[in-house]
Amino acid sequence: MEIDDIIEFKSSPEIKAKLALYGIPKTFLEGETILRENAYINSIPIVISGSIRVMRTDEDGREIMLYYIESGESCIMSFLGGMHQDTSKIKAIAEEKTEILFIPIQKVTELIKEYPEWLDYIFRLYHKRFEELLEVVNQVAFKKMDERILNFIKKKCELTKSNELHLTHEQIANELGTVRVVVSRLLKQMEDNGLVKLGRNKIFLV
After folding, report:
1. Is 154 helix (H, G, I), strand (E, B) or coil?
2. What stretch of H or E contains 58?
3. For residue 99, what pLDDT is reported?
4. Closest CA to 121 of 25, 21, 6, 1
5. What share of the chain is helix, strand, coil (3-state, %, to 5)?
6. How crowded is residue 36: how many other Cβ atoms within 10 Å of its Cβ?
7. Helix or strand run (H / E) with residue 144
């Protein structure tokens, strides 16, 4: 896929040419770790195809899903960490087979100085991620676990463009920061209420 097809802003041919020139393409398979917590950030990822799941881990090793990075988007956490020579505060995992264009940090700085539309792209990403993080806080603070699970399933279906998900109850529990037995009980209630259908490592959104 060409740079023209993925970048979500009106950019000049010059900046697209620079991205193609500076970028280092890499492909990750489903489940592969792209960025680990506490790792130094040397480059900024732009997703060419596929999607990335961004997670946060607490001191006890429990994880919670923060947001997804889809085609044409980048990771604002990487931008901030890289620009300030800080370590990563998140873990990024390939949600599916994912192609990424990595832009070296020093080149990102040059692009910001040369092209205002690149800075606008960063700010719009920041705004979108901020809203998504607010939604995570809202879910954790004010929503019951069954609502969180249903919203999680809907988001996954939207991402995969399918009503059938190949997920274990353990995977859902890990991403929502809860335990498998709670997820299994609530999914069974949802099935009884006609919201989902359950199979072996499968969930179908009705």
Report:
1. helix
2. none
3. 94
4. 6
5. 45, 25, 25
6. 13
7. none
Neighbours of 54 (CB within 10 A): 23
CA torsion through residues 78, 79, 81, 82, sign? positive
Which residue, among 138, 152, 141, has the nearest Cα to 186 in the 3D structure? Answer: 152
Judge whether 196 and 156 are in contact, CB under 8 Å: no
Nearest to 91 by CA among 140, 147, 165, 34: 34
Residues of the chain with pLDDT below 70 are 1-11
The reported pLDDT for the residue numbered 7 is 54
Structure tokens at 135: 């939604």
Give the pLDDT confidence score for residue 59 in this predicted structure.
Answer: 77
Residue 63 CB burial class (10 angstroms; 0-12, 13-18, ≥19): middle
- With helix as H, strand as E and coil as C, how does 32-52 read? CEEECCCCECCEEEEEEECEE
- pLDDT by residue (tens digit) across 14-38? 888 888 889 999 999 999 999 999 8
Rounded CA gap, 11 and 155, in Å? 29
Q: What is the pLDDT of residue 1?
A: 45
Smallest CA-to-CA distance from 107 within 47, 46, 48, 44 is with 44
Q: Name the residue among 21, 69, 66 with its Cα closest to residue 45.
A: 69
pTM: 0.75
